[in-house]
Amino acid sequence: MNYSELHKPLYHGSSVSFSIIDLSKSAVKKDFGQGFYMTTDKIQAEKFASLKAKRMKANKGYVEVFSLNNYDNLIIKQFDSANEEWFDFILSNRGHSKFATISRLSFSEVYDVYID
């Protein structure tokens, strides 16, 4: 995803249907930290919903559709490649102690949205 795709529909695959995003229900130690993950690829979201439903022993998965109506005030970090900065960020979010302060101080408290 890149900046030009922020106006497109954004999809989120899950094992449950919901209408309000609750970040406290987000898993920790994910690649881009605790948060709400979305994609512009509907098929990818459908596959993830199916996988998540299987893992949670749910009857089916759900794909929710969102749009960012006003993203002008969001602070966005775009990783242009899987470079050293990207790699350090991923390791930090996965809980590798060597990188723990990089994410917390340099990224997590600064950006609203990450684009990979």
What can be said about this structure in brief?
The chain has one domain. It is built from three helices and four strands; from the N terminus they run βαββααβ. It has helices at 42-55, 84-93, 100-108, and strands at residues 10-14, 62-66, 76-78, 113-115.
How would you describe the overall organization of this protein?
The structure is a single chain. With 116 residues, this protein is an alpha+beta fold. The protein has one domain. It is 28% helix and 14% strand. It has 3 helices and 4 strands. A two-stranded antiparallel sheet has the order 1-2. Helix 2 packs across helix 3. The protein is globular, with a radius of gyration of 15 Å. The mean pLDDT is 84.
Core attributes:
two-stranded antiparallel ribbon; globular; single chain; two-stranded parallel sheet; 116 residues; alpha+beta
